[in-house]
């Protein structure tokens, strides 16, 4: 199946419609026209730059460059996890816990998927490794950020309940157990919703992109099922690890609640 080429004037036409939308929001005084235009400009610049990087990466097909790209993606995702938390842990713990959780879950699942299930040659082939890791990190980042934010904010709001439970002799795991479970549910909910709605409410982005690029729908569906399962695994294990480490950090070695380890919202 031939793929229809897109010319610059066609992209410019789509961009002009975004400008029209920004104009409409300005007329309606929604206060979003500037943000909309800046976001659209960032989309163009960021995607153009990553297009150049991926062109070079695909041509080189070297493990060291793929690894450097993966580390850069992980560090940026770790920063985004920290930035989305209302009451994050002080001293780099929020960045460290989020980054380590995503590294353990996303990298492990991605490598297993590449080596055991898909099997490209070489196994780190950028065409498969970078998109798979990118989708994994993006979704795991959302799950970890939601879970840590729910954990720390709820612990702050229910500090009296937690301290009463500690005074009654409960270990810290039980004193904050229900809050940890709610935090894990928050982290997993987006992926459960995405899987439940796939195919009946929405067509996932990767599957849509493959079909537009000329791949047969049957093969696109197979890849989409694989991607959604691997993303769920990465998000799930990343969320569990982040909540376990984050909740432990809220207590000291004498099992006292240490909310002074949380940063004050700015």
Low-pLDDT sequence parts: none
Question: How many β-strand runs?
Answer: 0
Helix content range: over 70%
When the domains are counted, the total is: 2
Radius of gyration: 22 Å
Largest sheet: none
What general form does the structure show? globular
H/I helix tally: 10
What is the averaged pLDDT score?
90
Strand content: under 5%
The separation of the N and C termini measures 53 Å
Class per helix and strand makeup = mainly alpha
| Helix-strand pattern | HHHHHHHHHH
Key phrases:
2 domains, globular, transmembrane, mainly alpha, transmembrane helix, about 270 residues
Can you offer a commentary on this structure?
- The chain is globular and about 70 Å long.
- The chain is built from ten helices and no strands.
- It folds into two domains: 60 residues, no CATH class; 200 residues, no CATH class.
- By secondary structure, the chain is an all-alpha fold.
- Helices cover 76% and strands 0% of the residues.
- α3 crosses α4, α5 packs across α8 and α5 packs parallel to α10.
Topology record:
Layout: H1 8-27, H2 33-60, H3 63-83, H4 93-118, H5 126-157, H6 159-167, H7 172-175, H8 177-197, H9 205-212, H10 217-249
Helix pairs in contact: 1-2, 3-4, 3-5, 4-5, 4-10, 5-8, 5-10, 8-10, 9-10
Compact overview of the structure:
It contains ten helices and no strands. It is mainly alpha-helical and 266 residues long. The chain has two domains: 1-60, no CATH class; 62-261, no CATH class.
């Amino acid at each position: 199946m031939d793929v229809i080429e897109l010319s610059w004037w066609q992209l410019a036409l789509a961009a002009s419609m975004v400008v029209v939308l920004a104009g409409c929001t300005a007329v309606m005084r929604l206060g979003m026209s500037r943000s909309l235009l800046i976001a659209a400009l960032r989309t163009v610049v960021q995607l153009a730059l990553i297009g150049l990087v991926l062109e070079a990466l695909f041509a080189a097909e070297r493990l060291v460059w793929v690894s450097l790209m993966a580390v850069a993606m992980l560090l940026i995702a770790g920063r985004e996890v920290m930035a989305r938390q209302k009451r994050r842990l002080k001293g780099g713990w929020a960045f460290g816990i989020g980054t380590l959780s995503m590294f353990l879950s996303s990298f492990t699942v991605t490598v297993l998927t590449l080596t055991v299930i898909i099997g490209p040659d070489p196994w780190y082939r950028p065409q498969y490794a970078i998109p798979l890791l990118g989708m994994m990190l993006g979704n795991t980042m959302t799950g970890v950020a939601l879970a840590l934010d729910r954990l720390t904010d709820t612990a702050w709001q229910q500090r009296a309940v937690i301290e009463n439970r500690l005074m009654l002799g409960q270990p810290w795991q039980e004193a904050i157990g229900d809050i940890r479970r709610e935090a894990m549910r928050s982290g997993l909910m987006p992926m459960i919703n995405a899987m439940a709605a796939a195919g009946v409410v929405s067509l996932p982005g990767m599957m849509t992109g493959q079909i537009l690029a000329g791949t047969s729908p049957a093969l696109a569906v197979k890849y989409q099922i694989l991607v959604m399962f691997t993303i769920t695994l990465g998000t799930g294990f990343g969320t569990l690890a982040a909540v376990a480490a984050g909740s432990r950090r809220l207590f000291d070695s004498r099992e006292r609640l240490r909310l002074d380890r949380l940063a004050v919202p700015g």
